[in-house]
Amino acid sequence: xxxxxxxxxxxxxxxxxxxxxxxxxxxxxxxxxxxxxxxxxxxxxxxxxxxxxxxxxxxxxxxxxxxxxxxxxxxxxxxxxxxxxxxxxxxxxxxxxxxxxxxxxxxxxxxxxxxxxxxxxxxxxxxxxxxxxxxxxxxxxxxxxxxxxxxxxxxxxxxxxxxxxxxxxxxxxxxxxxxxxxxxxxxxxxxxxxxxxxxxxxxxxxxxxxxxxxxxxxxxxxxxxxxxxxxxxxxxxxxxxxxxxxxxxxxxxxxxxxxxxxxxxxxxxxxxxxxxxxxxxxxxxxxxxxxxxxxxxxxxxxxxxxxxxxxxxxxxxxxxxxxxxxxxxxxxxxxxxxxxxxxxxxxxxxxxxxxxxxxxxxxxxxxxxxxxxxxxxxxxxxxxxxxxxxxxxxxxxxxxxxxxxxxxxxxxxxxxxxxxxxxxxxxxxxxxxxxxxxxxxxxxxxxxxxxxxxxxxxxxxxxxxxxxxxxxxxxxxxxxxxxxxxxxxxxxxxxxxxxxxxxxxx
Length: 506
Description:
Elements: E1 28-32, H1 40-47, E2 53-59, E3 64-69, H2 72-84, E4 88-89, E5 92-93, E6 95-98, H3 109-126, E7 145-151, H4 159-166, E8 172-180, E9 183-190, H5 193-203, E10 207-209, E11 212-219, E12 234-236, H6 291-294, E13 311-315, H7 323-331, E14 337-342, E15 350-354, H8 357-367, E16 371-372, E17 375-376, E18 378-381, H9 396-401, E19 402-404, E20 430-434, H10 442-451, E21 456-461, E22 469-473, H11 476-486, E23 490-492, E24 495-496, E25 498-501
Antiparallel strand pairs: 1-3, 1-6, 2-3, 4-5, 7-9, 7-11, 8-9, 8-12, 10-11, 13-15, 13-18, 14-15, 14-19, 16-17, 20-22, 20-25, 21-22, 23-24
């Protein structure tokens, strides 16, 4: 696809340079300063949000390329957008200008047209191109508000992280974050629908961090967001005068509000690293495009995970409940607990050492502020890098207050890349039960939980695997307490019940 019959292309011919000729709009656009070994996907990903691409030439030796759009109107829309929001590929600025060429001549024209048509059609169906663009880059009534779902939430995703990522594609006006159906979600409003369109095309299906925190992006039905508070859950970047009170979720946004378009300020955050390769859309079929177009992997944002200690301070525990047991069983849902130390003078507080900083961050983000035994527990990072074991001369009580679980055979996340990392969810009223022996019935499990004082609201075995079931309790607090009490409960012979939180409902 990159072979050229443009004998006049030498790095200057065909380029619209103001000293040589006026920049007359053309369907053909000239791209300069492309990264080394640029792929066709990366070039096309810049253009597809604005319409269909008829022809493509890449001159890798010169770090240049030429795109011919299906219409001049689409080329003008693309140029106007990138004039105010210069694009980057692999964190390198790319320069785009009109070419003096009115059309491109390429080898294997029939094959290229077929491939580009397949790509554009797949992009249209999967949302890379707005359905209302008619292949000409004209957006009809497209919302500037994106709805974002973050799957496989291995690290916490803050409002600041979202603003940092999406500002790369245009001016972000407002963000609202919330949890719905046990999933972290956000609504994000751009200053312009084209910015939202480009962000969706580039980021849908990408990972914020390596191997986790996957973005699922769609257009919202809302035309604008109405943010009432500037805090860690919502932000209006156009108003610094808003209070920081608690967010009222019922008044977070209003339907039918018209968008007030502000002058867009384009911001690039240099610490967003982009690896090589970019697929056109998550719905693109391998069979639809030649293999040469499908070889590079998808883009990954690859942001550096937060650098933190692996020790947590868990406070406001109920000192009448066995501290080691409740703390370990609760926190180990999110990682492998190595050591637990109940503080000598404050037995409602405990230090918990996880296997690594990632697991500590995960436990903190999901457990801080949850209710347990009537108390709202607090989970934060400790200043201590490790939990020290008692020395030989320590008193008996101090030795009792510290437990070492590093040799436990029950660690869930010992194996790198364990599938257990994919089943980590915030606390919910619905529990996921697994490792259920065939001899244990639904009534047996209901009686087990009821006998410990828990109210079973609903129960359902998995249809295809009776070793697993969902159980809904009366509240999230009850579910947390049930997990602490009944995880690893011996059911039959050597089979222990496995209990975790579920994202599903019954």
